[in-house]
Amino acid sequence: MPLNLVLQSDLTFSTLNVPTITNRAERLLRLLSLRRKNLSIVLMSDAEIASFNNKYRHRQGPTNVLSFPAQDGGAALPFAIPPDELGDILISVETAAREAKIANKSLEDRLTELILHGLLHLLGYDHERSEEEAVSMWDKEQKLLHELNQTGRKTMAQLAINVDHVATIREARGTSEPDPVLAAGICELAGASGIVVHLREDRRHIQDRDLQLLRQTVKTKLNLEMAAAGEMTSIALATGPDMITLVPEKRQELTTEGGLDVARNRKKIEKTIEKMSKAGIPVSLFIDPDERQIKAAGEIGATFVELHTGRYCDAASEEQRDMEFDLIEQAAAAASAAGLRVNAGHGLDYRNTPRVAALETIEELSIGHAVISRAVFVGLDQAVREMLALIRPPFPGR
Ligand code: PXP
Fold first, then answer.
1. Cβ of 206: how many Cβ atoms within 10 Å?
2. What are the structural domains, with CATH classification, of the chain?
3. Which of these, 70, 239, 307, 320, has the minimum number of CB atoms within 10 Å of its CB?
4. Cβ count near 268 (within 10 Å)
5. Cα 286 to middle of ligand 1, angstroms
6. What is the pLDDT of residues 33-44, one digit of tens each?
């Protein structure tokens, strides 16, 4: 267990929300790419932290947080400290509670700040060394707190348009029209907040040339859907999309049929995530709304999951549709609580989208076929705007 949260026995904070604190600490470890490291966080009283403060820093009285890097003092030990050991963070919950009250924030929020502060100390940041280092540590803290708060959404869901099927029409004739690159620009001008393309191994629609040009022209966000395969990984690293979405890919299928089995293909997917995170490319995993897959996605360091909405969209009866919707709602809540960002897509159209868009745990919808089909009759700009109008909440700001 990489994270060990210890509550000292004489702590009387019965209102402490331990799962929330554990979850935030785990997310911080993930944001700092320290998922595999071992860390202990010990929550204690003022009296207890005062004795550590006195013994190790020769200072009187309690403090809010103390960090003890595992490697410090290692030379004095007769054995090597494993490199995976980060160290210990000691926090006084009593001091944290007083500080939370003064700053008018929750105890959990203050504890999160102190855990982050302690973590940065373990990584070598030290605000006491110089003014310059104090500024750099402060900046890093603010940036990470901002990223930590990026889960869920505060406004309407975003709409990313998949332009694969513009390329499908082009490939039907093997000519150069219609051009998915031009389509992407029209979608952005109409208000889409991202462009999605699936570069398939068999190149049935999107071509390498499209991806290169899209990388140069997309102004919002380019999401590359791909299989977790060697060739695609090299292409993604060379192109640098804003994010990738890993999908299962079978040559015979008409479209992506099911979600990834993350639990079963853990090693392969984890390797791809590691390569992408080194290049700063966030990874989304396209999965069925299933708790086992969500758990596995969180464990191997995915930033997003995209929930497969196909079964909800294809439901044969209203009863069945309600059941499938409940699964999406529950899965989105579970993923969000686990610190994953949540997108959804597949099969969404002008009838079934509003219900999914209303789920506040879902950040972005990825829609292709329905919008491109409607564009044949009403034009692409209009088709995108109509979908955006369905996604927009009826009472903005509520
Ligand atoms: N999300 C993923 C992962 C997909 O594979 C697809 C289909 O390419 C979509 C969303 C969009 O699905 P649709 O074309 O049915 O809107």
1. 26
2. 3-150 (3.40.390.30), 158-390 (3.20.20.70)
3. 320
4. 14
5. 10
6. 787 788 999 999
